[in-house]
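Good morning,

Both structures are done.
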Amino acid sequence: MMMMRIGSGQLSSSFYSSSCPNVLSTIRAEVRSAVSKESRMGASLLRLHFHDCFVNVSSHTIGQARCTTFRARLYNEANIDSSFATSTKANCPNSGGDNTLSPLDVTTPNTFDNAYFKNLVANKGLLHSDQQLFSGGSTNSQVNTYNSNAATFKSDFAAAMVKMGNISPLTGSQGQIRTNCRKVN
């Protein structure tokens, strides 16, 4: 019966209220346990929430990236701090080591804070797409705000999470449970 509901895309915001009334506390406990065992898990879950199934947002204040995703920036771009580039190249050679990880926030890699924005201002953004947030365009003012005011960053982030959490799912035949959240079934 459950497979029938999932297969037909019938969504309900109260689906688990009777079948698993403790689902939220169970999820909370499991997430806390996973993050305590592997600090990168928090970043992975945030990215899953923002990137994979909702919207493409750069929320990179914690986590790591594979060498293959930032090598071109490291070796080819001019808007990168030279000492940052040199130290990062030690772990990411010009060829090979594709799966070697480097922190997205070199200052405080496992802490959710505004150091990521301080790094962007100092041309220490690991990913090309991140450094573009502070490259003379319309997002410079937002980066400067978060760089200088950690409380504003945390408050805005919390408000965005609440706003996203308050979006009601499409139910019945209006929505669908995607087998691949990047594309419509």
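Second structure follows.
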Amino acid sequence: MTNPSRILIYSGGHLGPWALRLIQAGDLIIGADKGALFLLQHDIIPDLALGDFDSVTPEDLLRIQRESKQFISCDPVMKDLTDTEMALNWALEQHPQEVVLCGVLGTRWDHSLANLHLLRKALLAGVSCYIADAHNRIRLMDSREPLKLHKGRHSNVSLLPLSMEVAGITLEGFQYPLHNATLTIGQSLGISNVLIEPVGVITITSGLLLVIESSDVPE
């Protein structure tokens, strides 16, 4: 398989029509567990379906196995990784330019938080990655390069440290600017900023910073 420029992963959390609108020509599509069924139910054939498939019926599993271009299953008990992490590992091995995670947030906050942490794995691999749902777009950045955000439907931008401390935070193009600021876990200083310029720039000197673009109006 040639290296795709973008891979979309659909897991079994909250999904909807918004998730289908993310698909672009040339994207490689992965369905993780119940995410594969969601795709097939909306006439999208996964390039790969993988997981333990403990969230689908035996009939749905047969359909996923029959209709997906590639199918990888594993034992639901004798495994160490979540279906989403297995999908991300596979995606990173393809060396794409970008990975988009859909359906990785939901009612199970243990899974949701673990999936937020998966952004670090993509960051360390040097692959652009973000989590998307109907209201949010979530990225993780470090000090290696600035992050540019483009003004759009996500009206709020919040910053939360994923490491104990994030230092040297500088914001350009925001309503509430920061210069060489520090955030530590437990602070809410970075919540609900607003882009006032077409492009905003975030730089940091150390640490891991979650950047959450959000909108009260769903996609």
